[in-house]
Design goal:
Strand 6 and strand 7 form a beta hairpin. By secondary structure, the protein is mainly β. The protein has one helix and 15 strands, in the order E-E-E-E-E-E-E-E-E-E-E-E-E-E-E-H.
Length: 196
């Protein structure tokens, strides 16, 4: 599917893949494993937000799903705001080619059949994970500084439960918004003045 700015989705990594459900949501296929998928658009600045609606179609033991930002496709590194079923928690993580470092967590039990809006904000070294407009995790980390790409990840880091359709969480509505500095620069550019 081509987005509003001409970007498309590509499969970055993982033995599984994603599918479009009958409800026009993105879900993981029935193949065991994980799937990392991203848009081809590169934000103008590394300061931006990634948002998605996470619909809990079913709860699979050990499953995980999250939105990612600053993805470097050459080495599969990124930040991610994800939900972990086994731990009933949101986790803001730094991902390095399969190695995961937890930066901050917040406990919450999700209800099957409900939708939750998960948001990852990245402004400089300030990282935030919010759910339904409520700040859950706020940390500082400087590991990944390039803008990279935005995307989603289904499944845990090594192997994921296969399940039957509709497996686990589904994603819908995926806006990527520039941070304050990028918005100011864009406004200045359209007004024909230099950004400061």
């Amino acid at each position: 599917h081509t987005g509003e700015i001409g970007a498309t989705w590509v499969h970055e990594a993982g033995g599984s893949s994603t599918r479009i459900s009958n409800a026009n949501r993105v879900r993981k296929s029935n193949t065991a494993g994980y799937s990392i998928d991203n848009t081809t658009a590169t934000p103008l600045s590394p300061d931006y937000s990634v948002v998605a609606d996470l619909y809990v179609a079913s709860s699979l033991s050990g499953d995980m799903a999250g939105v990612i930002g600053r993805l470097n496709t050459s080495n599969t590194t990124f930040y991610m705001a994800r939900y972990e079923v086994a731990n009933t928690r949101w986790n803001l993580v730094s991902y390095n080619a399969g190695t995961v470092t937890s930066l901050g967590v917040a406990t919450q039990t999700l209800t099957v059949g409900s939708t939750y809006q998960v948001r990852l904000d990245m402004v400089g070294t300030a990282l935030k994970l919010s759910v339904d407009g409520v700040l859950k995790v706020s940390v500082s980390d400087s590991t990944w500084a390039l803008a990279g790409q935005a995307g989603i990840m289904h499944g845990p880091d090594s192997s994921a439960p296969a399940g039957t359709a509709p497996p686990g969480p589904h994603f819908a509505h995926f806006p990527v918004s520039p941070g304050p500095a990028a918005r100011r620069h864009d406004c200045d550019r359209r007004l024909g003045r230099a950004a400061h």
